[in-house]
Write a structure and sequence with these properties.
mainly alpha
Length: 182
């Protein structure tokens, strides 16, 4: 609830225990941003920062995805590099499908705001995202050549672990994006 950095500094100087190191650091980053932008502009800048930094987060996440695949497969038969190839294949599919969904949404934008447009948009998004989720299972089965049951079980465990890792990377992305709002 500090209005300026000088107010924050004087509060910390008066009582160092009242303002901890983390709170001081976060406040020192947020006060100039809150004073510079309105709430609407701040939301726009934050969203812009997240979108700008998303490719960096994806680039960091891909080796983690390959590492999880490596942990679940025969180390004598598959090198980490092979899992990296599968990761590139699957992420390329995800990005291409996301692009197609985005193009469809953009084209539907020209129809205006009506119930038919919203229904078509929701349907396209649902089918696209379900296809993105489903595609991992047959792609994993084909690439690694295991039985469907073994491949399905491994895929389920891999997806649960990756949901946890995606959550961590997403939180770090949001923090990084907020810190880098200019």
């Amino acid at each position: 609830g500090y209005k300026s950095i000088t107010e924050l500094d004087s509060a910390r100087k008066a009582n160092p225990d009242k303002v901890g190191a983390l709170e001081y650091w976060v406040s020192k980053k947020t006060i100039p941003i809150q004073n510079k932008y309105s709430d609407k502009e701040l939301k726009e800048k934050f969203f812009e920062s997240v979108m700008y930094n998303f490719p960096k987060a994806l680039f960091i996440y891909m080796p983690l995805f390959a590492l999880v695949l490596w942990l679940f497969h025969n180390k004598k038969r598959w090198y980490y590099f092979d899992h990296g190839i599968f990761t590139l294949h699957y992420f390329s599919f995800l990005l291409l499908t996301s692009l197609l969904i985005g193009i469809c949404d953009y084209l539907l934008h020209f129809l205006g705001e009506n119930m038919v447009k919203k229904t078509i948009s929701v349907l396209i998004n649902a089918v696209g995202y379900l296809w993105m989720f489903y595609y991992f299972f047959p792609a994993h089965h084909r690439f690694y050549g295991e039985t469907r049951a073994i491949s399905f079980l491994k895929s389920i465990f891999i997806l649960f672990i990756n949901i946890f890792l995606i959550a961590i990377v997403s939180v770090l992305l949001v923090i990084y994006a907020f810190i880098n709002i200019h």
